[in-house]
Structures are given as C-alpha cells and as structure tokens.
Amino acid sequence: MLGLPAAALLACLAGQFDINAAVTAEGRAGEAPLTVDGTIRKGVIGIVMPDLQVAYLSRVTDVRLDYVARIFWRTPNDLHSNKPLILHGVNLVGTSQVTGRLQLTGTANMSVGESDYTALALVLPNQPALPSVADFFSLTAAAGALESLTRTEKIGLNLSYINRTPLGATAAVMASAGMLVPPFPHQNTFGAEPNVRLTLSRIDELTISGPVSYGTYTGGVDIVLAAPQVGWQRRLSRQYTVRLVGGLAYAHVEPALDTSSPFAPVADVGLDMQLDHRRGVVTRASGDARVDYFVDPVLGTAGPRLLLTLSWSSTLNPNWLVGVDATYSTVFVGKTPLFLGTTPVDETMAAVTLPVRYRASDNLFTEFGFRWSDRAPSVEVSAFGFHQRQLWLYVALTATTRRPVSRMVQ
Known about the structure:
The protein has helices spanning 4-13, 168-176, and strands at 15-33, 40-58, 61-75, 85-97, 102-115, 134-148, 153-166, 187-199, 204-209, 212-217, 221-226, 229-235, 240-254, 263-276, 282-296, 301-317, 320-331, 339-340, 343-344, 346-361, 364-377, 390-400. The protein is mainly beta.
C-alpha cells in the first residue's frame, strides 16, 4: 500500500501541462511629473508586455509559471533619451490539495530591471512615497498551509519574504550621496501569520490571527511589527457580505524614531456586494476602510495609516464590462514629519481608474479608459496639498493563446 507522501505525489503528477503566450500593447496620453519632485508635463507613454506561461493542472494541483517583460517608453522624459526602460518579471503561483484536509499554496515574484516611478506602484504597492526612475532587483515570496481540523475549525500558517535591492546607477547614486529619500530601498523582511478560522454558523465566520514581521531597511533601520487581530464575517444575504476586524499593532524601530507612537489600533470594515440583474447584467462592488500600522520601505519608518478602497464593476453582456476602482491612503507621521530639503515627503496618495473592457473573441481583448492619481504630504503637515497629479487616457490591446478554462482546483 502506498504511503501518504507517495499517494499525494502520484495525485499531483496525474495531470497535464499547458503552454500559452500573450502580448499586451498599451498607449497613454496625458500629463504627469517627469520625477517625483518635478513639474507636471504633458506627454505620451507606450508599453509593450510579452508574456509566456507554463501551467500544470491536475485534479489536486494547479501550478502556473510565467515570464513577462515590461517595455516602457515615455516622451518627454527626465533622461532626454528615447531608450525604453525594460523590467523583467517571473511569477509563480501554485495550489495543491495535498489531502482532504490539508491545502498548500505558494506565490513568488522576481523583478529585475528599470522602471519609471509611474509604474513602481506595481512593485511597491500602496506606497505613497515613490522614487524616480530606478534600476533594481525585487523578490517576494509567500507560502501558506491550511488544515481543516473539523468541518467548522481550520488552522493555518502563512510565511512571507521580501527582498529589494538597488542595482546599477541607482545603487551608485545611493553609495555616493547621503540621500534622505533613497532612489530605491534596501529591504529584507520576514513575516509569519498563524491563524485560526471558526465557522460559527452558516452565515458567520470568526478569524483570529497574529501576524509578525521583522525587516531591515536603508540606513540600517530595523523594524519589528506585531499586529494580533480578530475578524468576523457575516453573509447578510446571497448578495451582501460584511467584514469587521479589530486589533492592536506594535512596532519597535531601531534606531528609535519620534514620528509616531509605537502602538496603533488595527481596524477594518468591509462590504462585498453582488447583484444579478435582468438581461445578463451582473454588478459587483466592494468597499473597505482600514486602519493599520504601515511600514514604509522607502523612508524606513512606521506609523498608523488610513486606507480606503472602493471597487465597482458591471458586466453588461458576455463581451462588455465597465467599472471604477478608487484608493486613498495617508500615513499619520506625528509631530516631526520628514522633509526633502524644505518640501515635506509625500505620505498621502489618491487614485481613480475608470476601465471599459471589451472581449472581441476568446483570444483578443481590449481595454480603454481614464486614470487619475495624485500625491501629497501627510494630512498632519501644515503644508499639505496635492502636487503630483497624473491624468491619462489609455487604450490597451491584449492578444493571447489562452483559452477560457475553469480552474481544476477550487
């Protein structure tokens, strides 16, 4: 009789491989600063992203590995050059139902190359203070295990790792100048999150988690963060689900900073909605208001942050979709905000995207719409004011060999 490891291995191998390719071409016209502290200039942007993916699918395992290159060109630009910026990326996503009770998940992303600050939000998500054009290496990885003890009790553990390193000219500039705001951060962060999920009833679920992390940042800053919290989710109806989270975060920063208190509340209120209308119209919406303790990898600081998100989309028919995505965040820096010369460092961000998507066929998609974003210092700073406006009209076309296939692992 086969042992459990051998049986799990055979189940994973009893699947199939699939290879697909895609390419996305995007054009933008609008205005944005050339650098994070520059004058707003009108211009155009061109982006080409070829993507090659290898997938392995079985009844219990779903693993996808893809390589994507982001070729970015903008005119005018701060370097007065027509040379494009190229960012290489490798992504890995995997899920495996090892046994009837144990599920394993894993994700990883490696990015290396150059990126304009207008695109660095993909590498530094929800990051108000962004560097200018940067040459860098970035590696993020996460692994999770979820074990079902009973039909109503589950325990889990999530592990994460982040490494970010400046390269080339970016690293040389940082080595030769003591910059208050570095072009790109040095960062090594390790995180762990044990959690327990309890199904209280058909409509109620309780989650208890204790995320902790340790990170080292540019300038020799060490930050330890712990944020135990309790979450509750209730399905109000088939269309509405509400989420509530509460807890307390503690951060230890060395050397000590006096920009904020080491303690801050953690709170989250969210609502998900899905409405089915007649004639094939399906509307989905979600809203979230969160207070957490945010570690800024660029500035090497930690402080309370308010994060608001709103998302809405309507599928008008099988081929058309319209939507709205909005984000606002600000970090509360206390009485001694950081300054770049005489200018406060930006720690507030707002962004809105209005996308319209059309599926011409199973292998050809197009999207067009409007993007707006702006940045400002913390709302606690007397010189608060938005000054990094970006306005873009864009159109993107994606051609792919992928077929719309349902996932084999739920």
